[in-house]
Design brief:
Blueprint (H helix, E strand, L loop, with lengths): L20 H20 L3 H14 L7 H22 L2 H15 L5 H21 L3 H24 L21 H20 L3 H17 L3 H17 L3 H18 L4 H14 L3 H18 L2 H17 L3 H18 L2 H19 L7 H16 L3 H17 L3 H9 L10 H17 L3 H19 L5 H6 L5 H12 L5 H14 L6 E3 L5 H23 L5 H19 L5 E3 L5 H8 L3 E8 L2 E8 L2 E9 H17 L7 H22 L4 H4 L4 E4 L20 E3 L3 H8 L9 E5 L6 H11 L4 E3 L6 H8 L4 E5 L2 E2 L9 E4 L2 E4 H4 L8 E5 L7 E3 L3 E3 L1 H8 L3 E5 L5 H16 L4 H10 L7 E5 L2
Parallel strand pairs: 3-6, 6-7, 7-18, 8-9, 8-10, 10-14, 14-17
Antiparallel strand pairs: 1-2, 3-4, 4-5, 11-12, 12-13, 15-16, 17-18
InterPro entries: CHAT_dom, TPR-like_helical_dom_sf, TPR_rpt
Pfam family, one: CHAT
Protein name: CHAT domain-containing protein
Length: about 900
């Protein structure tokens, strides 16, 4: 925030008193304090109203001219800032110039100097706000120097409390007057923010650290939180997203307590961080929440920036219409405000939309190239080097598509080398463009080398991130590079050597989340508290709905709680230590008589890489779109079959439809592979919508042990022997399952040493504690997959929901987990085939095998399937073998899948 922190005292609204000058001045001062509070909280319209009332009060006769001038200067200074925030910056700067002129009439030199500093700090803040960073920093340099000399003189003066302390940054409370220290902390914060905008990271961090220290030493918690927020912005621009998210978390906690109005600006910066790591949908939802309030408060710059980042989120999510609309709205506002730098950045997003469309043409129009080159020059003149380079790369991509590789090469020669602080999406686009240029010139080797280098660079960024969602989200930045590499390899033919190359590229580009050995997080204790609050809100929301009570407020609180829990995970230590991608030879050595089928989609072509015995083969299977539609239809039919007591005619119709869809999928996915796989056990690596397929439903997999895994690398990790020791069996019965009582009792008979948690004992904390270190855990409970927020997919226990967030952080997860519940094998599949859900969280955290349903399942079929499964398991069968036999009894109503090692 760029205005001084509010005084602790809050005055009542002033009232007009045309006969009492003293009361009028006192009321004007109270109105200014109220206005400062509102301005600090970004409530600018309210601040403007109070300041105009205060200025009107000062017009009555009889007020001492010097006192009138002082109070009027304070009001006009803050008013200028607020008018600039809600209107045009030049108007604000003009107002401040008028304040400068009035200040010359103030006879008290010390007061004049203090007020002059406040005016200059606001002027500098406005200059930086619209991209005139160097002008703003020059102003701040002067004011910081003056403030430090003023504080030094105060400390050295006889009789001043705290004199003799050498550094205001480490002096105790009372060493200097609070307002003077606050002004210095404000100036340091603003200069740190400005240095951060200019990518002068070391200077920015030095200023902001000092601002935090000053504010904390002198008991200015809001000023410290504002500097903490600014630190988040600086390290975000430097590419350290986890550190940025930690600073944002610290600032958010303080803002919640001290000044919730500042959360709106913080949310914009959090959304920018989310976009940088591929969480566009989460960023979009967050911005959709804050934009209405920003518009209501008429915070012009913040509205425009929020719209700009909403456009960036929509672009990343593939919604080109929304991206173009939001970018245009932001650009118009920024031009009206006199923010040419920000307006040019909005123009760059609009250009990206148009380039995305143009690349779909056989020959994109030349005007797109000309526009990109012109915008690059504009951005360079505004000293936005990274954005200028990005625009040139966009121009080069269009030239390549237009069949002009030499012109594209000339453009790329004008792109400077990437720096440590260059955003990851910029770096990936440059790699992609160089790969496309090499391909246009017939050099496949260089194209693949660029793709490999780019994905490795993305992997190094991923290695530093915390939280499952962050690690999986980053894949979006490498999507096009990976797709290009896979297409290139597929164009190379169907030889064994090419099949191995394709397998390697698939492992480089898919499900990277699952190739980490998780480490214990330092956010676990606070995360547990946040999730407990989400659980409480979830139950309160359910009760309100059942009772027919209003739910809007609870829904808002629940979303906020889920977001806070997610962000704690994101800002934690790195999720884990990466394992190397496996080779085809390593997989063949582990298969031990099994066959592995790894599916891939390139364009509309579905292919399979088959690994069996000592051979690797590539098989082209046909249209991916047709298979995708068949998989969706089968999933819908299986959901419809779930209820326990369907009327026989309806049961017959839906069953017939499901069998037809299963037959169609089988003809495409597995029958062409039959000569290769024979009757072996299968390990399947799905892609896209194939993650919803319960493989035991397909005729080729009838009674065939089949295991689904997110990647071959994940499977090799799951079958390795160097796991933490585990022992014992845990059986958990959740509430509301009619068949669960008998089911759990029956299963206990198969496992004589089993620990049972009945409905009353099956509380979240008890279940999580019991899961730690157990060999086999079976949980019979209602469950639900949460597609928009996968880590809040849940199992319902007696005291509320147990979330994927929690099971994913069990210190020593069970070796085998059975989830006798609906849909918990489902995942949200991000770009790069990054599946995430309840079962996925277990696998990512180190569970070897998870048995779960990929669609809804009735209580009775579930109980019967689990009884058969455990009988087979207790007889010595592996989980995959035991499940295949259990599912074969009634495949359509037992849509369970074996995930992990098998």
């Amino acid at each position: 925030m760029t205005v001084p922190a509010p005084s602790p005292a809050r005055g009542r609204r002033g009232t007009r008193d045309s006969e009492d000058p003293g009361r009028a001045v006192a009321s004007a001062r109270r109105l200014h304090r109220n206005a400062l509070d509102a301005a600090t909280a970004d409530r600018h319209p309210a601040a403007i109203r109070w300041m105009r009332r205060g200025l009107a009060l000062l017009e009555i006769p009889g007020i001492d001219p010097q006192e009138r001038l002082e109070v009027r200067t304070r009001l006009r200074n803050t008013l200028a800032f607020c008018l600039a925030e809600t209107g045009n910056v030049d108007d604000g700067l003009t107002q401040l110039a008028g304040v400068d002129q009035e200040l010359s009439g103030l006879r008290d030199e010390a007061l004049r100097a203090q007020l002059s500093t406040k005016v200059n700090l606001n002027r500098a803040a406005l200059l930086c706000r619209v991209g005139r960073v160097d002008e703003g920093v020059a102003q701040l340099d002067l004011e910081i120097d003056r403030s430090e000399r003023r504080l030094a003189a105060r400390r050295a003066a006889p009789g001043v409390p705290g004199s003799g302390v050498p550094d205001p940054g480490v002096s105790g409370p009372g060493a200097a007057d609070t307002e003077a220290v606050d002004l210095l902390a404000l100036a340091l914060s603003n200069r740190g923010n400005a240095h951060g905008e200019a990518h002068r990271v070391d200077r920015a961090v030095r200023d902001l650290d000092r601002a935090v220290a000053l504010a904390r030493t002198h008991d200015l918690p809001l000023r410290a939180a504002i500097a903490e927020h600014a630190l988040g912005n600086v390290v975000q621009r430097a590419g350290d997203i986890p550190a940025a998210l930690r600073h944002y978390q610290d600032a958010s906690r303080a803002f919640q307590e001290l000044e919730p109005g500042l959360l709106l600006r913080l949310r914009i910066d959090q959304a920018e961080a989310m976009i940088s790591v591929g969480l566009a949908d989460e960023a979009g939802r967050l911005l959709d929440e804050v934009l209405p309030e920003l518009r209501r408060q008429r915070i012009g710059q913040d509205v425009a920036e929020a719209e700009l980042f909403r456009a960036a989120a929509a672009l990343q999510d593939g919604d080109l219409v929304l991206a173009k609309r939001m970018a245009g709205a932001a650009q118009r506002k920024l031009l009206r405000r006199g923010s040419p730098a920000w307006a040019a950045v909005a123009g760059l997003i609009a250009l990206r939309v148009d380039v995305s469309k143009a690349l779909g043409f056989r020959r994109p129009p030349a005007r797109v190239v000309a526009r990109a080159i012109a915008l690059s020059a504009e951005l360079a003149a505004l000293k936005l080097a990274d954005q200028a380079a990005f625009a040139l790369v966009l121009a080069a991509r269009v030239e390549i598509r237009r069949g002009a590789p030499d012109r594209a090469a000339d453009l790329l020669r004008g792109v400077p080398a990437t720096r440590r602080i260059t955003p990851i999406d910029h770096r990936m686009l440059l790699r992609l463009c160089r790969a496309e240029l090499a391909l246009a010139r017939g050099n496949r080797r260089v194209a693949l080398a660029q793709a490999k280098a780019g994905l490795a660079e993305l992997g190094r960024m991923r290695d530093r991130l915390g939280g499952l969602e962050l690690v999986s989200g980053t894949a979006v930045h490498g999507r096009e590079l990976g797709e290009l590499a896979v297409r290139l390899v597929l164009d190379g033919g169907d030889s064994t050597a090419n099949a191995k190359r394709l397998f390697t590229w698939l492992e480089r580009t898919r499900a990277q989340l699952y190739r980490y050995d998780p480490v214990e997080s330092d956010a676990d204790s606070e995360l547990g508290e946040r999730i407990a609050e989400v659980r409480r809100l979830s139950r309160a929301l359910l009760r309100a709905r059942l009772d027919g009570l209003p739910t809007a407020r609870l829904e808002v609180l629940l979303k906020a709680g889920q977001r806070a829990a997610n962000q704690l995970g994101w800002s934690a230590t790195p999720w884990g230590t990466p394992r190397p991608v496996v080779t085809a030879e390593e997989v063949l050595a582990r298969l031990a008589g099994r066959a592995m089928v790894s599916y891939a989609i390139a364009g509309d072509e579905l292919t399979a890489v088959v690994l069996v015995d000592d051979r690797v083969r590539l098989v082209r299977l046909g249209s991916a779109a047709a298979v995708t539609e068949d998989a969706r239809r089968l999933h819908a039919d299986l959901d419809a079959l779930a209820p326990d007591h369907l009327p026989p005619p309806l049961l017959g119709v839906i069953s017939a439809s499901a069998r037809r869809e299963a037959e169609k999928l089988d003809r495409v996915l597995l029958r062409p592979l039959a000569p290769m796989i024979g009757d072996r056990e299968l390990v399947v690596v799905p892609t896209g919508t194939l993650y919803v397929v319960p493989w035991g439903v397909l005729p080729t997999c009838a009674n065939r042990p089949t295991t689904a895994v997110p990647s071959a690398t994940a499977w090799v990790s799951a079958v390795r022997e160097d796991r933490h020791p585990a022992n014992g069996v845990l059986l958990v019965r959740g509430p509301g399952l009619q068949a669960a009582q008998g089911e759990i009792d029956l299963l206990a008979g198969y496992h004589g040493d089993a620990k049972l948690l009945g409905v009353a004992e099956a509380k979240v904390g008890a279940v999580l504690e019991a899961l730690d270190g157990v060999e086999l855990a079976h949980i019979a409970a209602h469950g639900e997959h949460e597609p928009e927020n996968a880590l809040f997919s849940r199992l319902e226990l007696v005291d509320g929901a147990m979330f994927a967030h929690e099971v994913g952080r069990v210190r020593h997860p069970p070796h085998q987990v059975v989830l006798a519940a609906c849909e918990l094998a489902l995942n949200r599949v991000r770009p790069g085939d990054e599946p995430l859900g309840f079962a996925g969280a277990l696998l990512a955290s180190g569970a070897r095998t998870v048995i779960a349903a990929s669609s809804r399942v009735g209580d009775q079929p579930s109980a019967a399937a689990m009884a058969d499964f455990h009988r087979n398991l207790s007889g010595g069968a592996s989980p995959a073998v035991a499940l295949a036999d259990a599912v074969a009894v009634d495949p359509l109503r037992r849509p369970f899948v074996c995930l992990g090692s098998g």
